[in-house]
Design goal:
The complex is a heterodimer. Helices cover 35% and strands 24% of the residues of chain A. Chain A is of the alpha/beta class. The N and C termini of chain A lie far apart (56 Å). Classes of the chains: A alpha/beta, B mainly alpha.
């Protein structure tokens, strides 16, 4: 039987009258690299916030690594790493100080935290900026330091909200190499991204959410098998993730109204 | 083809924008008490402006020819408020970045005049214009002969102030465009104010009242004579002698400042920006974080972070140093107390120590009333870390405790330079500090959850806590100070010196219980209202 590391049951979140996540049942197995996709406002960030303890569900349950997030939040957080939307960085610390701080928050001893901080800064190519305040980092550098902070305690699962947004190709290459290495060693990654090419290349599994509801999930091959394009000219071609995505969320059929003045 | 926006539309939009930003800041929501207090502050402010405007009108009507120096003083008040109040209110009033308007289809001429209009719509400028109008009205109603000079020189004076204010803020914007320069400027600014005050208080008490008048008055008169305020006042009261000089000074000043404003606005209009672009090189310093005794790795790391943040906010520690400077003056300048309050050496010894401790605690208390002031986006980090929010509060309280302890040691050392402190008084001082600090931190934990406020760092007057938190916090501070005062009074009244520390000890123990209860309540509140805290801080 597969080892389920993230499981939600009937997960529901409302903001006033708006239902952001609606009865979401989701399962992620150990070692999966899951791409969690959806159009803007579909509920991706809300879901990832609930899975990481940043937001309380209105109803439903979340099990992470076999533990109930509501009751065993601290234990769960000890074993996950997160790059949230907004990055959650203390920007008036230097890169070194920030990583040291985060490492110690996960109860690493002082020497281990310091050694891993140095290693991560080197790996992320932030060596020359190690003593600069994070506030002075570029957007891409902040993404890299946020990812370094997410992995410093060697978590079992990584939750990444748009890790490649605003990151240049070189930095993205570094991040991708690190993430592939993480899953190759048995780690699980839960990633949201709008860059479908990257998701297609990196992820082993895909889940697509729309209007707060899970519309499909499975490996990319399973999704390809389950989707037939309506355009006869594309028949027989291997579908790209973008084509699958647009077919599933109905993007091609949501033709915008013509703007007469544009 | 895109059409450039029409001038009248632009001005109307700008006025509406300012009004909407202000109105949105009063929207009821999570912080009803905060909105209420802010609304009350504004009502009180408007009432004050109305009353003071009447005083300006009365000055103009009754005192224009009888006491002409009143017109000079009035113009100085107007000019100082116009230039200084916006600096004081920066960070606590709703505002928008005017320079953002440069990306809209405006011709430069309109962008320039909109900058002036934007400056004129500032609360301080509106107040000063109201005062100036009332002063002018008072003068022309009482003295119709002054109408021509008032009509010419008061508008010129207003324009000069407006231009100066825009140039000053433009310059500050340039200087503070990068974080490092901004921090240096704040530190230099606070140190400058501190130096001026320290010099004043050490110099003034040395002079007799008559000496003071003889030495200071000529300096003030000279400054007035050559200032736009003095020139304007002279031109209005004696136009035949002073009109040409005033026209040259005010007109020339306006032209010069107008040109400087042009030099500032042109690059902004063309899209040139400043940023932190300097690259610093350095090897990785893999020094381990702090390992504080009796605290685990998590608490150590959190306390270290608090300390680093405190020192990265120059405004805070410069404030702290300023308190110590005043205590030093008090300890080493007995003549000041003798002359100012008629206190003998013994009385000074009795009063200075508790006053120094209380004063420093009042200033430090704002650190506790909004203990998440420095967290902003980092607040998520607390929620992501494997730690209960109660531990985070404890870490912040430990930092506050360390700051209070350091302050107590420094204040005691400084005071004891000038006045010997008896052991019993020292004990009372320590217990009083503990009592008030426990009260402050208990209230602070609750207020930090009820009225969280994201603080914009690196501004001159950033407030560390919201108005409501500061108001309620001060009431709590007063209540705990009253307890300490009561204990001191009881010891003296019944002539039992040991009674004071005993009573203080009992109240400290009770305050410890209150602290634990407040910590529990605050932690529960923060866990329950996690979403609202994130909305407010992140």
């Amino acid at each position: 039987m597969a080892d389920i590391v993230v499981e939600t049951r009937n997960l529901h979140r409302e903001f006033g009258k708006l239902t952001a996540v609606d009865s979401l049942d989701l399962k992620v197995e150990r070692g999966q690299f899951l791409g969690f996709l959806g159009p803007n406002g579909a509920g991706k960030s809300t879901t990832i916030k609930m899975l990481t303890g940043l937001l309380r569900p209105t109803s439903g349950t979340i099990q992470v690594l076999g533990m109930d997030l509501e009751r065993q939040g601290v234990e769960v957080k000890q074993r996950i790493g997160v790059v949230p939307e907004g990055l959650a960085l203390f920007e008036r610390l230097t890169g070194t100080q920030l990583l040291n701080f985060v490492g110690r928050m996960y109860s690493l001893d002082r020497d281990t935290a310091a050694a891993r901080s140095a290693e991560l800064l080197e790996f992320m190519d932030l060596r020359t900026s190690a003593d600069k305040l994070v506030a002075d980092y570029s957007h891409g550098m902040k993404k890299k330091i946020a990812l370094a902070a997410a992995v410093i305690h060697r978590p079992d699962i990584l939750f990444l909200d748009e890790p490649f947004e605003g990151v240049d190709a070189i930095a993205a290459g570094t991040l991708k190499a690190m993430l592939q290495r993480f899953t190759a060693r048995g780690g699980t990654i839960f990633l949201t991204s709008h860059v479908l090419e990257v998701v297609e290349r990196l992820c082993s599994h895909i889940a697509i959410i729309q209007d707060g509801k899970l519309v499909t999930s499975g490996s990319i091959e399973e999704l390809r098998a389950g989707v037939t394009l309506r355009d006869p000219e594309c028949a027989g071609q291997a579908l790209t993730l973008e084509q699958i995505f647009l077919e599933v969320v109905g993007g091609e059929h949501q033709a915008p109204h013509e703007l007469s003045w544009l | 083809m895109a059409l450039a926006i029409r001038d009248t539309t632009a001005f109307r939009l700008l006025a509406r924008l300012r009004w909407q930003v202000f109105r949105n800041s009063l929207r009821p929501g999570f912080k009803r008490v905060e909105v209420l207090i802010r609304g009350f502050t504004w009502v009180a402010g408007v009432s004050t402006v109305a009353i003071t405007s009447l005083i300006f009108a009365a000055n103009g009507y009754f005192l224009f020819d009888k006491r002409p120096y009143v017109i000079h003083v009035s113009l100085w008040v107007i000019a100082l408020v116009w230039q200084i109040l916006p600096l004081v209110l920066e960070g606590s009033t709703p505002a928008l970045d005017f320079n953002e308007l440069a990306r809209y289809p405006l011709r430069f001429r309109l962008f320039y005049t909109m900058s002036l209009t934007y400056g004129l719509l500032d609360p301080a400028a509106l107040t000063c214009v109201a005062w100036l109008l009332c002063l002018a009205l008072g003068i022309v109603m009482g003295h119709p002969a002054a109408i021509p000079s008032v009509v010419i020189f008061f508008p010129l004076f207003a324009l000069l102030n407006l231009l100066f204010n825009r140039v000053l803020f433009g310059w500050l914007r340039q200087v503070t465009a990068t974080r490092r320069r901004r921090e240096i400027l704040v530190a230099v600014g606070v140190l400058f104010l501190l130096t001026v005050q320290v010099s004043f208080w050490t110099w003034m008490p040395r002079l007799e009242k008559s000496e003071r008048k003889a030495q200071v008055l000529p300096v003030i008169q000279a400054a007035d004579r050559f200032s736009p305020m003095g020139v304007t006042a002279n031109a209005v009261s004696a136009p035949r002698e002073s009109a040409l000089v005033a026209l040259g000074t005010l007109g020339g000043g306006c032209l010069l400042l107008g040109f400087l404003l042009y030099r500032q606005l042109r690059p902004i209009y063309l899209g040139e920006t400043d940023s932190d672009s300097e690259v610093r090189l350095g090897a990785i310093q893999a020094e381990p974080g702090w390992g504080l005794p009796f605290l685990g790795p998590q608490l150590s790391a959190m306390v270290e972070r608090e300390v680093r943040y405190y020192f990265s906010e120059h405004r805070l520690w410069v404030n702290q140093v300023s308190i110590w400077s005043f205590v030093l003056i008090g300890a080493l300048a007995p003549s000041f107390f003798q002359r100012a309050f008629g206190w003998s050496g013994e009385r000074r010894g009795e009063v200075l120590y508790p006053v120094a401790i209380s004063y420093s605690l009042i200033v430090m208390a704002t650190l506790a009333y909004n203990c998440f002031w420095s967290d902003a986006g980092g607040y998520y980090r607390w929620l992501l870390s494997p730690v209960k929010i109660r531990r985070v509060l404890q870490a912040k309280n430990i930092f506050f405790g360390i700051a209070v302890l350091v302050n107590l040691v420094v204040v005691t050392t400084i005071v004891s330079f000038g006045i010997p402190i008896a052991p019993l008084r020292l004990l009372n001082g320590v217990l009083t500090t503990m009592l008030i600090a426990l009260g402050v931190v208990s209230a602070g934990n609750l207020l930090s959850g009820w009225f969280p406020k994201k603080v914009k760092s690196g501004t001159f007057s950033a407030k560390n806590a919201s108005e409501a938190a500061t108001f309620i916090g001060l009431i709590v501070l007063a209540a705990f100070s009253a307890l300490a005062f009561g204990a001191n009074w009881a010891g003296k009244h019944w002539q039992r010196p040991w009674l004071t520390p005993l009573l203080l000890l009992v109240t400290v123990l009770a305050a410890g219980g209150i602290y634990l209860l407040a910590l529990k309540l605050a932690s529960e509140y923060l866990e329950k209202h996690q979403d609202k805290m994130c909305d407010e801080l992140v």
